[in-house]
Amino acid sequence: MPEASASGALESQAAANGQNASRATQASARRRRASPTSRRQQRAALLFLAPACVMVGLYVIWPILSTIRISFYNWDGMTPPAFVGLANYVELVHARTFYTALKNNVIWLFLFLLAPPMGLAVALYLNQAVRGIRFVKSLFFAPFVLSGVVVGLIFTWFYDPTFGLLAMMLGHGIPVLGDARYATFGIVFAALWPQTAYCMILYLTGLTTLNAEQLEAARMEGARGWALLWHVVLPQLRPTTFMAIVVTVIGALRSFDLISVMTGGGPFESSTVLAYYMYDQAIKYFRLGYSAAIAVVLFAIMLVYIVYHLRRMLRTEQ
């Protein structure tokens, strides 16, 4: 009897193995039959992706690699470049203007982060169906379509200590852009105007995608005001908030146009930032290698921040 049961088990195992082999053979046959279609789909996908990949390679990857390479050279843009190794980075570390620019970038970063909450507040105010709200939205949207040069000129006139609106409001003039203590804060305040409008647009778009059933259920449970905003609305706006913060941080780190129009980095380089310092060294002094080193440092700062927030967002979604 034991021998009979053992032989039966062996037969059943052999039959199972035969069935598995048959299934594997059928699956491989299906894959072989589907392989021409699969290959055509892969070729089509590659053809559609190829133009975008070429553009990214030419206008993103290649400039980044070229900038990193140039940062190891002493080059004025006309004569042959001379390899100097890490000399540009060593000089950058010992330059006082670099730390002034870095400090101003930190000030820009912290104050510029006021734009997302202010944009959210304006978006919540405008997200209502009342008469004339479209006209009000257009007024709040107007700063976003203005160029940085126009915004800079408007606030330069606003800060003017002789005939500016600020002097009229205070009763006396304050040289905001001519004082090293106030210049950076005055420029950041001017930059917050269009940046808040941009964040407002992002949040207005996000508010249109809210789940109406969750909102209604929360109201039926008695959620109102701040509780409804904090526990129901803001969790659904997390992707919009992430995008607003990333764009705002990048805007703070690459701030250039308003500084160029309003102060030119002055007075005495007190309002310069890394982006303007990079431009100043390349255009005024023809130090392209040193300017590339500044660009590499600025790119590294942006990259660390963006990678950190991307990992945090992915971890939260998982």
Care to describe what's here?
- With 318 residues, the protein is an all-alpha fold.
- It has two domains: 2-70; 92-317, MetI-like (MetI-like fold).
- Helix content is 77%, strand content 1%.
- The protein has 14 helices and two strands, in the order αββααααααααααααα.
- The protein has helices spanning 2-70, 87-94, 96-112, 115-126, 133-145, 148-159, 165-170, 183-207, 212-220, 225-236, 238-253, 257-262, 274-284, 288-317; strands spanning 73-74, 82-83.
- The chain has a two-stranded antiparallel ribbon with strand order 1-2.
- A hairpin with a 7-residue loop joins β1 and β2.
- α11 packs antiparallel against α14 and α13 (274-284) packs antiparallel against α14.
- The longest helix is centred in the first third of the chain and has 69 residues, at 2-70.
- The protein is flat.
- Mean pLDDT is 84; it is low at 1-10.
- Pfam families: BPD_transp_1.
- Keywords: Cell membrane, Membrane, Transmembrane, Transmembrane helix, Transport.
- The chain crosses the membrane at residues 44-65, 106-126, 138-159, 182-205, 226-253, 288-308.
- Belongs to the binding-protein-dependent transport system permease family.
- It is found in: Cell membrane.
